[in-house]
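<instruction>
Derive structure tokens from the sequence

<record> Sequence and structure tokens follow
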Amino acid sequence: MGARTSRSSWIVLFTGLAVSVLGVVLFLAGSVGCAGTEMHVGNQCVTYGDGWEVARPPDRRSDVQRLAALTAIGLGGLLTAAGGWLLFFADRSARPATGVGDRIELARRQGWQFVDVDPELLTDWKDTPDFGAGQPAFAVLRGLYGDLDFVVFDFRKPDTGEFATAWIVYLPHPSRMFVEWATAQEPLYRRPLHMVGVRADAVVEIGREQHRSTEPDSVLRQVRALAEIIHRFEARASAGS
């Protein structure tokens, strides 16, 4: 996808340059002649013959041609600027759409585990409407963040069939008090988290769409936020004991 994006940016850039050149050519060719003398819009052509003096405006086609030239130059400039921005200034933080091969490589680099399809992962979350019943998890990453186990995976939305990404961080020890505590928090979470669910043994972030980065820091961004919720609970539980 990254290569296609780069090619598209170059296409936009070169199209803009080509349209700009065409506009310049039309602009320079937009004059008319009068007895061998170059004329421009606003001039009058006066010719003499057999004692008669005839005044006429330049060919009206030159006005249309000049307007077309200016339009082409303006459009070409916009396309060139857009192509240049896409190539050199667009945000590069969004990496190509994550595929199986991308996450296999990411798992290898980080020492995480990878599973192509896990039919059992969402069994305990079957009551969560966003996951649906009987849905497998795809492109599953498992790792350790500090002392907390986490899972990152893709799932198919039951309402639209589109793929999205979810993150699960597991508590070191299951606790029903965690559910009570979490539901009483206001707010429980903030950005970058979108929709958080809790169980006695885990907390999950259900993303809006498929996560497109294969950079470790980006993949762990939601993991860190979920881990922070667990750490808040542990701190509260320790203070109350």
Q: What stands out?
A: The first strand starts at residue 32 and ends at 34. The longest helix spans residues 61-88. The chain has two domains: 2-88, 100-240. Strands lie at 32-34, 37-39, 45-49, 52-56, 113-118, 137-145, 148-156, 163-170, 196-198, 202-206.
